[in-house]
Amino acid sequence: MVPVLLLIDVQHNMLLPPEPVPAAATVAPAIAAVLARARAAGASVIHVRNNGTDDDPDVPGTPGWELIHDVLPGEPVVDKSTPDSFADTPLSTLLPPGAPLVVAGLQSDFCVRATTLEALRRGHAVTLVTDAHATYDGSVPAAEASAAVAAELASAGASLAPSEVVHFG
What we know:
Layout: E1 4-8, H1 12-15, H2 24-41, E2 45-50, E3 77-80, H3 91-94, E4 101-106, H4 108-121, E5 126-134, H5 142-156, E6 159-161
Parallel strand pairs: 1-2, 1-4, 2-3, 4-5, 5-6
Helix pairs in contact: 4-5
């Protein structure tokens, strides 16, 4: 079965100024490359978009809320308000049962982590694109936080692969 590309929160507020994630300059092209390969292969692409509240930079309708990549016909957009992209969204109905997933996006330690763990729990094989997810600096540097999430997800059963080896078909 051809994997489904799940792009999580690939939105202006995290990849463009004024406050992009520290790895934006390398993560953005990796995401774009995986998306181009998925589209070229005719794979399903699902865009997940976070809907912030109050003073968040991704409040619906604001520039930060906009997706980085144009959504092509047939590519659904799933709006969410929690880190788990399956919670209170139609995501599970858009995925064929047991479909393998390729996951890329933001933020590693929140939405990428929660969605990947839930996908694994639901029986999906998941490949995390190691150079196509990122987060912000926090109690540890962003790169360290992203690496720790990748290690945790690998321990939970996800496969890890750099963008250049991820193919669809």
